[in-house]
Design brief:
By secondary structure, the protein is an alpha+beta fold. Among the domains are: 147 residues, GAF domain (Beta-Lactamase, 2-Layer Sandwich), CATH 3.30.450; 133 residues, Heat Shock Protein 90. The strands form four sheets. It has a six-stranded antiparallel beta sheet with strand order 5-4-3-8-7-6, sandwiched between helices. It has a five-stranded mixed beta sheet with strand order 10-12-13-15-14, with helices on one face. Helix 4 runs antiparallel to helix 5, helix 4 packs antiparallel against helix 6 and helix 6 runs antiparallel to helix 8.
C-alpha cells in the first residue's frame, strides 16, 4: 500500500513555532457511510448528555481542518464541510499538535485563548481529544463546545475518552478491512491473470485442434477422391453393364462420405451438420452421377433448415439416403416420364427423427421381394440398426421407406446400446 504521506503545520498554544504533524495519507480508506451514520448518532448523544450546543468530529488535511460530523442540536453554529485554514490558533490545532486532551472552561477569561476564532461564534468553552489512525497519523479530533463557562466533570471526560477510543477502533477496523480487501483484490487479480493465461492456452489449443480437424477432414475428402478416381480407372478397364453398375454404386457410397467431410472442412463446425444442406448435396451428386437418367425424374427435399445432427448420425443417414435414392433412380422410373423422389426428415422430439424416402415409380416387384435381397437392401437394414431405429417398406403407388431412429451423440454409445 503506497503511503503518499502528508504533513500539516498547526499552531499550538504555548509554542513559538508551528508543530509539524502527520495527517491522513492518501492511501487511507474512506470512512464508510455506515460508520459515518454511527458516528453521527454518537455525536448527537454526546451533545444531548452534556446539554451543550456543539459536539464535533473534525478531520484535518495538509492545509485545512474541516467539520466531519456535527451534532444536530439547536444553537450549533458548525455544519459538516465547514473548514478553516490551519495556523489560525484553533482549539483543535493545540489538541492535534500536543497529542493531548485540551480543556478550556472559559476562553474569555483565559489569556491564552481570549483571541480564539471560535469566540466569534459564541463558543467560549472547549474540551477535545485527538483522533489517530493506528499508525499514528492524525485523523482529527473529537470535541465539544459550549456557549457558557463549563469545567466538564470527570464523568464527562471519561465518557468522551471512551467514545474517542471507539472511533479509533473503527478506524483500525477500516484499515484491516481495507487490507483484507486489497489482499483479496490482489488474489483475484492473480487468479484472473492465471485464468487468462489458461484461457489463452486453451484458445491456442482450440485453434490448433480446429486446424488439425480441418486438415483431417480435408485429407479424408482428398483420399476418398483418390479412391473414387481409382474406381473410375478400374471401371474403364471392365466390360459389362452389371460391373459398371456395381462400380457406380460403390462410387456413390464413397462420395456420400466425401461430401460430408467437405461440408465439415468448409464450415469449420466439426460436431454438427445441417441435414438439409447435406441431403441436397447428396441429391445433386446422385443427379450428376446418374445424368443419363435425369430426363425422367425430379427430386424434392423437405427438411427444416434448423435440423442439425452430429457427424456419426449424419454419416449413417447419408449412406441410407444414398442407397434408397440410388435404387429409385436406377429401377423406379424405367416406364415413367414424370418421376418424383421425395426425401423428408422430421424431428419427432429432442432425440428422435422420422425419415421418409419415397418415389412414385413402378414399385419393387413381388419376385424381388421374394428372392434373396442384394447388398443394397442388406446395407439399408444394417445402417438402420446402427441408428437404433426401425424401417417400414410400403409399395403402394411406388416405393416408400419410413425410418424412425434416435440421435446418439457418440458412435460408441450406439454399439453399446445395440449389444447391451
Amino acid at each position: 500500500m503506497v503511503s503518499e504521506q502528508g504533513y500539516a503545520r498547526v499552531k499550538v498554544s504555548g509554542e513559538a513555532f508551528p508543530v509539524r504533524i502527520p495527517v491522513t495519507s492518501r492511501s487511507k480508506p474512506e470512512v464508510s457511510r455506515h460508520i459515518q451514520d454511527k458516528w453521527q448518532g454518537i455525536i448527537d448523544s454526546i451533545a444531548g448528555c452534556f446539554n451543550i450546543p456543539a459536539a464535533l468530529i473534525m478531520s484535518v488535511g495538509e492545509e485545512r481542518i474541516s467539520v466531519f460530523i456535527s451534532s444536530r442540536t439547536e444553537g450549533n453554529p458548525y455544519s459538516p464541510g465547514d473548514s478553516e485554514k490551519l495556523n489560525m490558533g484553533l482549539y483543535c490545532e493545540t489538541v492535534m499538535g500536543s497529542g493531548e486532551m485540551l480543556i478550556v472552561p472559559d476562553a474569555e477569561k483565559d489569556p491564552a485563548w481570549d483571541r480564539n476564532p471560535d469566540i466569534k461564534l459564541g463558543m467560549i468553552s472547549y474540551m477535545g481529544l485527538p483522533v489517530l489512525w493506528p499508525d499514528g497519523e492524525v485523523f482529527g479530533t473529537i470535541c465539544v463546545l459550549d456557549s457558557c463557562e463549563n469545567f466538564y466533570s470527570e464523568s464527562y471526560i471519561s465518557l468522551i475518552t471512551v467514545i474517542r477510543d471507539s472511533i479509533e477502533k473503527d478506524l483500525e477496523d477500516l484499515i484491516l478491512k481495507s487490507r483484507e480487501l486489497e489482499e483479496s483484490h490482489e488474489k483475484l487479480e492473480t487468479t484472473i491473470a492465471a485464468l487468462n493465461s489458461v484461457n489463452r492456452q486453451l484458445e491456442k489449443s482450440l485453434r490448433e485442434k480446429d486446424l488439425l480437424l480441418s486438415e483431417v477432414h480435408h485429407r479424408v475428402k482428398n483420399n476418398l477422391q483418390i479412391i473414387i478416381s481409382l474406381i473410375d480407372l478400374q471401371a474403364m478397364n471392365e466390360t459389362g453393364d452389371m460391373i459398371h453398375s456395381r462400380f457406380r454404386s460403390i462410387k456413390t457410397r464413397i462420395q456420400s462420405m466425401g461430401i460430408l467431410h467437405n461440408i465439415l472442412y468448409k464450415s469449420g463446425n466439426f460436431e454438427r451438420v445441417s441435414v438439409k444442406e447435406y441431403t441436397e448435396m447428396l441429391m445433386n451428386n446422385l443427379e450428376i452421377t446418374f445424368h443419363d437418367k435425369r430426363n425422367n425424374y425430379r427430386w424434392e427435399v423437405n427438411i427444416d433448415d434448423r435440423l442439425i445432427v452430429n457427424i456419426d448420425t449424419a454419416v449413417t443417414v447419408g449412406l441410407i439416403i444414398n442407397e434408397i435414392v440410388t435404387n429409385s433412380i436406377k429401377h423406379a422410373f424405367n416406364d415413367i416420364s414424370n418421376g418424383v423422389i421425395t426425401v423428408q426428415i422430421l424431428q419427432l422430439n429432442e432425440g428422435t427423427f422420422c425419415m421418409k424416402i419415397r418415389d412414385n415409380g413402378c414399385g419393387i416387384p413381388d419376385e424381388v421381394i421374394a428372392s434373396p435381397r442384394g447388398l443394397g437392401h442388406e446395407l439399408i437394414e444394417v445402417l438402420v440398426e446402427q441408428l437404433n431405429g426401425f424401417v417400414e417398406l410400403s409399395r403402394n403407388k411406388g416405393t416408400a421407406y419410413t425410418i424412425v431412429f434416435d440421435r446418439v451423440d457418440k458412435e460408441d454409445d450406439r454399439w453399446l446400446k445395440k449389444y447391451s
